[in-house]
Design brief:
It is built from 11 helices and 13 strands. The chain is of the alpha/beta class. Among the domains are: about 110 residues, Methionyl-trna Synthetase, domain 2 (Beta Complex), CATH 2.170.220; about 90 residues, no CATH class. The structure holds zinc ion. The site of zinc ion has 8 residues, from loops.
Length: about 375
Amino acid sequence: MSVVFFNGPVQNGDFTFADRPGKAVGIRIAEALNTVLSTPPVPHLWNTTTLAGDLRHRELGAREAVDRQALEARLIAAKYPPGDAPSGGMLTDTDPEVSALALEMTGRLLADGVLTIAPVPVRLCARCGHMTGAGPHPCRSCGHTVTRAHTGRHLFADRDPAQPVLTREDFHGRAPAHLMDIAGNAPERLILSRTRDHGIDLTPLGLDGLVLDPRAALHIAVLAAARRHGADVAAMTTTLGAAAHIAAHGRHFARHDGTRLVYAVHGRVPYDDTTHLAKLYRVHRVDPEIRDLFANWFLPLCSLREKAGVQAAQLAGLLKFLRRATLARTAVPQDTSLEQARQAVRAGDMRWLMDARVLPHVIPPTPTLEGGANG
Ligand SMILES: [Zn+2]
């Protein structure tokens, strides 16, 4: 059974990896673990179906004619340092490959009666027609405060509240019980079509002007990438919060043709505590190679072990541990240790990371990590 790691698609927001290294943690975990398994580089995955993206495009469109897909691609490319594009390429949640798979999966789920298209009462903004939530809050698309009731055809899934949304099988490694509880609170009817300017167009299903909910599309993007790599299990990196937000909507889009998507939950890395990190590097006279390895390889992997997040108080100890391990490296890594780490990675067990006998044989010989983020 082959396990391939993919990053949970990153929202194409307003940041660069140099400014916000935390945004790259999922990408780096996937890269590091795929390298341990000798898997060829996978694409970096991006989420472009966002309301913020709609607003940004409209604002820009008022001044210059700009194609949305091209704009998203340009903004994604600008997040990487010049000349440092990912070797496995990139894939967004609206690429033709993802759209085609989404329509194929949706068609099959409709035929199986798992999904339904039927008139559903929703609330629309009285000015722009954007689908708003049930509450009396202003339209997030145009700011208008009045909504109106409307019954329109939508794609939806009704779930049996007695059935859990997530089970242990949906996780790579330890399943956070707390997350399974939160996901279980999702509404019984999940509407999967949305009003957005950009996304997987549901016109072929007779839902003109609607796109597939991005929370479903994210899962499909991972499966599309997994298909390229012939993976049996696609382990998608995600934080607890992100997983809780997307899991229910993604439930029916987490397996396809023998490939299964599971969540590899990680915590946060305290990169924002830059003074702490900078002081640590200075006091311990850490050379740039070790800094890079620590910030871009070791800490992301630590965050997969520490699902509640790596704490700033742990940084000094972790740095010391990594430096010792680098000194214990041998010219040729020990096969048995590497194989031990591989088996653990496939099984979702991260204890090898803090095993002083194993770690020296798994550390990449030269850090050739993408993104250039060094905290
Ligand atoms: Zn509106």
